[in-house]
Amino acid sequence: MATTYSEISSNKWRTVVVMTLFVAAIIGLGYVFGIALRLPWLLPLAIVIAIVQSFSSYWWSDKVALAISGAHQIDKAQAPELYRLVENLSIASGLPMPRVYIVDDPSPNAFATGRNPQHAAIAVTTGLLGKLTKPELEGVLSHELSHIGNYDILLSSVVVVLVGFVVLLSDFFLRYTFWFGGGRRRNSDSGGGQTGAILLLIGIVLAILSPLFAMLIQLAISRRRELLADASGALLTRNPNELASALEKITADPGSMRHVNKATAHLWIASPLHDTRGKKRSWFSGLFDTHPDPAVRIKRLREMAM
Amino acid sequence: MVAFWTVLVIVVVLVLAFVGLYNGLVRRRNRVQEASSDIDVQLKRRYELIPNLVNTVKGYATHEREVFEKVTELRAGLLTGTTAEKINTSNQLTETLKSLFAVAENYPELKANQNFLALQADLTDTQDKIMAAQRFYNANVRDFNTAIQVFPTNLIASMMGFSAFEFIEATPTETQNVNVQF
Fold first, then answer.
1. How many helices (DSSP H) and strands (DSSP E) are in chain A?
2. How many separate domains does chain B show?
3. A144 is catalytic
């Protein structure tokens, strides 16, 4: 179990690092845009936003992630079979019972979120409940519970809020520059126009780069984690074959998810963005995958079973 | 003088290592004991569900005294003995309940009784939960036993009287379903 404990502390550290980088990036963006657009109030605003955002990403990221995905909470009476499976697996793994959510979507998928095992939630789609057998569903749930036990959920949920925000922010400023930036420059005197233009250019470059960086962070944290959660999930049920066949069904499903969102893509057990699944592509486009190749995951699970 | 300080440093390091390892063992042992009480919680729940079930079935199937007696007898065993014994009793109870549920097949009214169906589901579920709690217990026992067997913790363990816990083994009826090994 030493691996689990080191995984937990590594996740906590990474969360701190990601939050710090985020705060630094937002303040940096605020500074650059503030000078480029000649809005002196932008820097203090950015500082306030960065701090508020970091706190809220810790406390409410799970609610944001669940709301974006259109998940609604269920109790034992509404879905006794699912609820019992989660209950039994949390007993077997020694974790507190997480909240259980259902997402109304025919595409089979699942995710876990929350800041710690005491405040965790598992969400599954109606498609998952309909298309998997009970042991397969158990395999998927044990994978999600492993994410909870390893504190993967903390890091990946914080990233939902922070990344979602970075994307939103640079979108906003890019638009702002186009609509109002030009007008402003005409009104001002020509002195300092050159530095203004250079900073504006930097601003635009940053606006283009920031979602890209946000994406890289998102990818860096999720792929190895999926393999680890597959392994510890299989250890929990002692049945890697069921999780493997669940993954086969999930990746083979032709339907795309209705609530696809770039900010939450990395949370799901299999990529909800359908075009990124299964096909042969160059290593470069592989760099931007949120999930490891499902074929690799299935192969590893099958090997465990032998 | 140098020798004195060297000895002192070595002694301090040894004492600190001892304290750290000893505390680690105590923590792991407590985890095993906690896991064992988790099993008891589930056994207790099963114990409390059974009278309801027996009473519901009695209302319809009055002639099945033998099964009722067996169930009642086994129920008492859920709360006495070692954890392994209690689990064993619970497994036997599961088998007996199967024959009780088979009896119910002969009584269409009982089969349609919502209360009976809910109890049946609950009892099956408690058995799943007992098995889950048992798996968690075994995982903790494995960690504890490994800890007291590896060097250098084994020295402290034998000095301070830590002894290995026993795994709760699956009974033959359970192993039939398990087809995967690591």
1. 11, 4
2. 1
3. yes
In this predicted model, what pLDDT tens digit does every residue of B51-72 receive, in sequence order? 888 888 888 877 777 888 888 8
What ipTM was estimated for this complex? Answer: 0.74
Q: Does B129 touch chain A (CB under 8 A)?
A: yes
Q: What is the SS3 assignment for A108?
A: coil
The DSSP annotation for A220-241 comes to HHHHHHHHHHHHHHHHHHT-HH
Q: How many domains does chain A have?
A: 1
Per the structure, the complete domain to which residue A95 belongs is given by: 2-305
Nearest CA to CA, how far is A292 from chain B (Å)? 23
Query: DSSP label at B169?
Result: P
What does the alpha-carbon distance between residue A107 and residue A125 come to, in Å, rounded to a whole number? 7
Question: CA nearest A22: which of A149, A198, A230, A210?
Answer: A210
Helix (H, G, I), strand (E, B) or coil at A99: strand
pLDDT, tens digit, for every residue of A167-223?
Answer: 666 666 556 555 555 444 444 444 456 666 666 676 677 667 766 766 666 666 667
User: Active site residue: A144, A226, A242, A248, which one?
Assistant: A144
In a domain, B94, yes or no: yes
Q: Does the model's pTM come out above 0.80?
A: no
Q: Which letter does DSSP use for residue A62 in this model?
A: H
In this structure, is residue B72 part of a structural domain? yes
Burial of A39: CB neighbours in 10 Å, binned 0-12, 13-18, 19+: middle
Tokens representing B92 are 């036997």
Q: Determine, yes or no, domain membership for B36.
A: yes
* CATH number of B108's domain: 1.20.1440.20
Residues 6+ apart with CB under 8 A from A75: A83
Q: Which of B136, B137, B175 to mutate to test the interface with A (most CBs of A within 10 A)?
A: B136
Closest-CA distance, B64 to chain A, in angstroms, reads 31
Q: Which domain holds residue B94?
A: 31-138
